[in-house]
Amino acid sequence: MKLSTRTRYGTRALLELALHRSETPVFLKDIAREQEISLPYLEHIIAPLIAGGIIRSTKGPRGGISLARKPQDIRLIEITRLLEGSLAPVECIDNPGVCTRSSACVTRDVWTKMKEGMDEVLESTTLQDLVENHRKKSAAEPSMFYI
Amino acid sequence: MKLSTRTRYGTRALLELALHRSETPVFLKDIAREQEISLPYLEHIIAPLIAGGIIRSTKGPRGGISLARKPQDIRLIEITRLLEGSLAPVECIDNPGVCTRSSACVTRDVWTKMKEGMDEVLESTTLQDLVENHRKKSAAEPSMFYI
DNA sequence: AATAATGTTGACCATTATTGTCAACATTGT
DNA sequence: ACAATGTTGACAATAATGGTCAACATTATT
């Protein structure tokens, strides 16, 4: 039940973008260095976020990426949907046809509740919430500027 | 974010045991057939449940396995702990040392909430709850006797 | 005691998903 | 024209999962 690194790295990259207050886009290169992700891998992680309308990108010199919307309008559930897909712990939740027992299965009901618990957290949290929490933590512990 | 088949199969096997009202133990062979799991694989799934004190086993002819406790005293969280380990979506929740940013990381806080949401569901559900839900569903849809 | 039916254990293997890397390309500011 | 960026697709390494197989241990039955 681990999240993929795609989702972890992607979320941290988005938070870094959200923390970047200037208008100018940020280089992938810089995010890769900050977050200790290889540049080629980060490119592949960013791609679905661009396709999903969370990130805008500009090519060429002085290019880079930036948030397509304000941080308070980006919910974490969108990020995980794009990078991780559904959080359903078992296939039969999204796809009841894969198992003939789906409708009568009571373990499936439990796994469904688990999914709902996770979804609720991610639906109710925006990038802006992360930004604010980060600022609070940074204020409390000035030495910790990491994301 | 999928559960392993170990956990899914193991939970279904335990539910089958819980539904089996007689005193006599159940053959692994029979559970394997009912749940469509290969016998050798089921043996490996059962092993940690025996070691964890959820299942008792008897060797020899007329042997088999049975629940070590009453269904209302077996919480699903015990099962997932034995078969899946922690539900932490990221390693740094159980093991902050793996990442120097742990204490300052705000994404980690979100993943922690996700874990707590899942744990809450599994802590508050017992095998007996599954048994009751199963009986309700069976009564409503008599043709669906599956687990 | 012999035997057959069960569960136990450990070694092993196949498949798949993840996690990347690399190279060619497209775009754009200077 | 060129250099700096992002884009895309093919590919590879690695690890985890899901499973098999064979040898063994135990016990009821005869």
List the helices and strands and how they pair.
2 copies of one chain form a homodimer.
Chain A: H1 5-19, H2 28-35, H3 39-51, E1 55-58, E2 64-67, H4 76-83, H5 91-94, H6 106-123, H7 127-140
Antiparallel strand pairs in A: 1-2
The first copy, chain A, binds a DNA duplex (30 and 30 nucleotides) through helix 3.
Number of strands of chain A: 2
Largest interface: A-B, 42 and 42 residues
CATH class of chain A: Mainly Alpha
Mean pLDDT of chain A: 94
> Quick one: overall form of chain A?
elongated
By CATH, the topology of chain A is Arc Repressor Mutant, subunit A
Radius of gyration of chain A: 18 Å
Give a description of the structure.
- The structure is a homodimer of 147-residue chains.
- Chain A is mostly helical and 147 residues long.
- Chain A has a single domain, classed as Winged helix-like DNA-binding domain superfamily/Winged helix DNA-binding domain (Arc Repressor Mutant, subunit A), CATH 1.10.10.10.
- In chain A, 54% of the residues lie in helices and 5% in strands.
- Chain A contains 7 helices and 2 strands.
- Chain A has helices spanning 5-19, 28-35, 39-51, 76-83, 91-94, 106-123, 127-140; strands at 55-58, 64-67.
- Chain A has a two-stranded antiparallel sheet with strand order 1-2.
- In chain A, strand 1 and strand 2 form a beta hairpin.
- In chain A, helix 1 packs across helix 3 (39-51), helix 1 crosses helix 4 and helix 1 (5-19) crosses helix 7 (127-140).
- Chain A is elongated, with a radius of gyration of 18 Å.
- The two termini of chain A are 23 Å apart.
- The model of chain A has no long low-confidence stretch (mean pLDDT 94).
- The A-B interface holds A 1-3, 8, 11-12, 15, 76, 84, 87-91, 100-101, 103-107, 109-111, 113-114, 117-118, 120-122, 125, 130, 133-134, 137-138, 141, 144-147 and B 1-3, 8, 11-12, 15, 76, 84, 87-91, 100-101, 103-107, 109-111, 113-114, 117-118, 120-122, 125, 130, 133-134, 137-138, 141, 144-147.
